[in-house]
Every structure is written in structure tokens, then in C-alpha cells.
Amino acid sequence: xxxxxxxxxxxxxxxxxxxxxxxxxxxxxxxxxxxxxxxxxxxxxxxxxxxxxxxxxxxxxxxxxxxxxxxxxxxxxxxxxxxxxxxxxxxxxxxxxxxxxxxxxxxxxxxxxxxxxxxxxxxxxxxxxxxxxxxxxxxxxxxxxxxxxxxxxxxxxxxxxxxxxxxxxxxxxxxxxxxxxxxxxxxxxxxxxxxxxxxxxxxxxxxxxxxxxxxxxxxxxxxxxxxxxxxxxxxxxxxxxxxxxxxxxxxxxxxxxxxxxxxxxxxxxxxxxxxxxxxxxxxxxxxxxxxxxxxxxxxxxxxxxxxxxxxxxxxxxxxxxxxxxxxxxxxxxxxxxxxxxxxxxxxxxxxxxxxxxxxxxxxxxxxxxx
Length: 370
Description:
Elements: H1 3-10, H2 13-26, E1 31-35, E2 38-44, H3 50-59, E3 65-68, H4 70-75, E4 84-87, H5 93-101, E5 113-114, H6 117-128, E6 134-139, E7 153-155, H7 156-164, E8 171-177, E9 186-192, E10 199-205, E11 214-220, H8 223-227, H9 235-248, E12 252-257, H10 266-277, H11 282-288, H12 300-307, E13 312-316, H13 320-328, E14 332-337, H14 348-358
Parallel strand pairs: 1-7, 11-12, 11-13, 13-14
Antiparallel strand pairs: 1-2, 2-6, 3-4, 3-6, 4-5, 8-9, 9-10, 10-12
Helix pairs in contact: 2-7, 10-11
């Protein structure tokens, strides 16, 4: 079989390499990350266990280090502009877990050393895998036996290609009519794409014509709000309210996106909820864990809409980033409409934070109306 034929079966090598690396890291296994001649062995810090630290130190041919994002370093007492590294030295797994997630943990001593570009790529792999942005990295020499152990290997250029091209080209894998209570006729169209090749769903409500602007909502999945009617957010109200509005106004397209917790994943979202319960805002909680304001990207949704035949949209959203993303992706955003939910005793602080920290279109006089 020719190499070109094999590529048709497996996909482009650079894309396969990133997918394999993400799967390995989520499974708690190490990967090799390369940038030219520089190679690091990379492990996910949140999955590290004591029995793994001995082999980590045994294969170390340089300083084994814990890489932390600047937001996490700030929570640890160091106000630095970029990611930083601390020596792994005699840290056990329990101490590492405290350093990467506990609110009362502090790093004493000098400021962490600045991370290298390869270290930053290791953190990016963690974010793409929806893991805490904390990595253990070990430099690997060119003649090291570690390079021939069959570990998944990914290079930084492949990661750039993956972010720029691959995750923005979702493809339709299945579709079927699904009638909905109080909504009527709809069709569920499943796309495969985005980081980690997760499934994204377009719910086409009614039969909106493709030659006219269509109502669209980009809705990031919220297990707690959408399914269990959590009072901590307004997501469930927005989801059902948008679908009902579309059904009553000529139809529309609701894109249900696998971006739980502003792209941080369900595990990190629940970690943040624990911090919110202790009094932190939704954004402060994420920052304590090392995340930026919002990890999501929305450009790939334009490709989904185009494959459905829509190029002109009327957005139902409070988020200006979504409006900008579709406009920048070349769609004609003819209007933007509020996606309202209830104000409750449990979500007013959350909504105020979204308004004040992320510029969401939410009225200034938020108050509980229940």
C-alpha cells in the first residue's frame, strides 16, 4: 500500500498525532512533544499518582518540572505575566494536586522560572484535552531510549495546524427528523469536529428557508442547566426559550455545542462550582484553576451553518464574542436578539459577572424576580 493510500484511511498525520496525544493525556499516559530538535516528555499533572513519579524521575535527563498557567500562579501568590515552572524535586502526588487546584495553597520562595514555548504548548495540549492547565514536562535527549518506546508523539506545528484548520472543518455524520414537545417538527443533524473530534449537533427547527436570514443560537452544552434545571445559571431557560421562539417565528437553527463549562469540560466546571459555593465568582473560580476568561472558539460553527445552506443569520445571544466570531468567519449577521432567562436568587451574581467581566448584553438592574 502506498503512503498516500494509507493517509486516505487514517487522515493527515499531523491531525492524527494531535488526536492521539489528547486521548493519551486524558487516559493518564505520557506523550512526547517536539519542537524542532527539542523534545519533552509530557504528563498531565491532574492524573499523576505516586507510583508514576519514580519512573518519571528515573527517565529524567534534565530537570523534571511542573508547568503552571499565569492565572494559577497568581492564585499561588506570584503575579507573573506568563506561564512558569517549578522543579518537581521531591513533590509527591498529593502535593502536586494541591498546587494545581487548592485555594489555600501558596508557593513560597522565588518566582517560578518562565516557561519555554515548548512548555506553553504542553499547557495548550491540556486545555485542548479539557484537563486542568498544569503539565509535568521532562527534557529528553536526542539519543534517549524514551524516544523509541512507542509513545504518542506530537509536534508544535501540528498543533497549530490542528487549531487553525482541522477543528474548523466539521462534517455531517448523521441526521434524522426528531419531533419535539411544544416545538413541533425538527431535524437533528450531527457533525463531527472541533477539538478532540467531538460531536456537535445542529437542531433545525421547522423548515427555515436558506435564501433568507435564519434565526440561530450557538448554545454551549450545560449538563447542569439544560438537563437538570440548575438554578446557578440561565442556560436551560435560554435553550428552551430560543427553541420556542424559533418555532413561533418561522423556524431556526440551534447549534448545540460540546463546550461544557466555557470550554473547560464538565470536570473542571464542577471544580469551579465548588469554588463558587465558597464565594468566588464564576470567572474568579476559573482563574483560580488556571483558565482564562473563556476557552471556547466559535468559528467552526460558521462551517456547520454553511453546510446546512445558511449564510445570513439573526443571532439569539447575549454574548458579543459569538456575534464577532460569525462575522469574522464571513457570515452575514443581520441582527442580534437577547436570549433571556429567569433571574433567581442563585444566578444573579453569575449573570452580573457575565455582564461586568465579559460584556454580555444583560440589563444593568439585575434582580431576583422569583
